[in-house]
Specification:
The structure is a single chain. The protein has 13 helices and twelve strands. With 333 residues, it is α/β, with parallel strands linked by helices. The protein folds into two domains: 2-158, Rossmann fold; 188-332, Rossmann fold. A six-stranded parallel β-sheet has the order 3-2-1-4-5-6. The protein has a six-stranded parallel β-sheet with strand order 9-8-7-10-11-12, with helices on both faces. α11 links the parallel β10 (263-267) and β11. The radius of gyration is 21 Å and the shape is globular.
Length: 333
């Protein structure tokens, strides 16, 4: 059976759709699974052991030079690759017009099906027009978790029940030589940055937590992705006794940071979700987004705190960190 998953973005959502792959292969070990994803996340999907081929989609870049011949050539090559395999099932778990068009462009085997969401969840960017491309539309509850949503769509199409914890099946990023910024000793990663200011945690809270973590012997590493985030990281570092602002990291180095962390604490953002997908000891901080959508509920190593309009208090986060570090220390001894 040949299967295509169309989930092109964003970082956290791509990660949250990975358990679909393990679910399918658990029931159909010989299935061949391909994935269409934005080119920026292609290396991330390559870390999933169950994905055979990644088909990069560069719409964000193509839009800037849509009428140039090089871009048109890339689009033709994408279309040709997408149609080079006849798929038995094509899944679109994003539910947008653009992902529906990609689904329609891909080639179906005789008797094949195009399967997607019959509706969006609360607050999602779902576009109902995407249903015109389906041969099967799967309804989900309005408050269905972001990981469970894709798993339910595949289960409904392939005739099984979702009855196991989410398995992301992520390999560590491959590096022949580890980057120079990576410490040899255990460290904490603070994923403080997010595009929406309301989702951020107060700098004073981060500073207090940094003192606590340093007292337990862990240096704090602070990543960033934009000049404003770098400035915020430098401000946080000035509030902590043992913190370091990292250089700007390429995608796979950022994944390595999350995958190797002795402790990850972060707001509702992609790198926090990657740490949770690797089942690292992770505290997820929900300050102005609904916790039910993406909370890490597949491992006891993940603690979820806060909710929309109710940021977690420092005491809650410190207690969670203490528990996770105690569990990790016990497991290592």
């Amino acid at each position: 059976m040949k299967i295509l998953i169309v989930r092109v973005s964003s970082l956290g959502d791509v990660v949250h759709n990975m358990p679909m792959v393990a679910d399918i292969l658990r029931r159909f070990p010989d299935a061949q699974i391909d994935w269409v994803v934005e080119e920026a996340y292609a290396d991330l999907v390559r870390l999933n052991r169950g994905v055979r081929n990644i088909i990069p989609f560069a719409l964000r870049r193509w839009r800037k030079t849509l009428f140039t011949e090089p871009t048109r050539g890339e689009m033709r090559a994408f279309s040709s690759r997408l149609r080079s395999t006849a798929y038995d099932v094509i899944f679109d778990t994003q539910g947008l017009l653009k992902t529906g068009l990609v689904m329609r462009l891909a080639r179906l085997a005789p008797g094949g099906r195009r399967v997607g969401l019959a509706n969006g969840t609360e607050g999602s960017g779902y576009e109902g027009i995407s249903r015109v491309f389906h041969t099967m539309s799967v309804p989900v509850g309005l408050r269905t978790h972001g990981v469970l949503r894709g798993r339910l769509v595949t289960a409904a199409a392939l005739g099984y029940e979702v009855d196991t914890p989410a398995d992301f099946d992520l390999q560590p990023p491959p590096f022949q030589t580890l980057p120079s910024w990576l410490p040899e000793q255990p460290y904490a990663a603070f994923f403080h940055a997010t595009a929406r200011a309301a989702k951020q945690w107060a700098p004073a809270h981060w500073g207090r937590l940094g003192h606590m973590v340093a007292a337990r012997g862990l240096p704090v590493l602070l990543p960033w992705g934009s000049p404003a985030e770098k400035q915020a990281a430098e401000d946080l570092a000035s509030r902590m006794p043992n913190a370091r602002v990292l250089p700007k990291l390429p995608m796979m180095e950022a994944v390595l940071l999350a995958q190797r962390a002795r402790l990850a604490v972060g707001v509702d953002t992609g790198l926090t979700h990657i740490a949770a997908a690797y089942c690292r000891p992770t505290v997820e901080l929900y300050c102005d987004s609904p916790r039910w959508k993406t909370e890490g509920n597949w491992s006891a190593n993940i603690v979820n705190l806060g909710d929309t309009g109710a940021p977690p208090q420092p005491e809650e986060v410190e207690a969670a960190v203490d528990r996770l570090l105690a569990v990790t220390k016990s497991a290592m001894s």
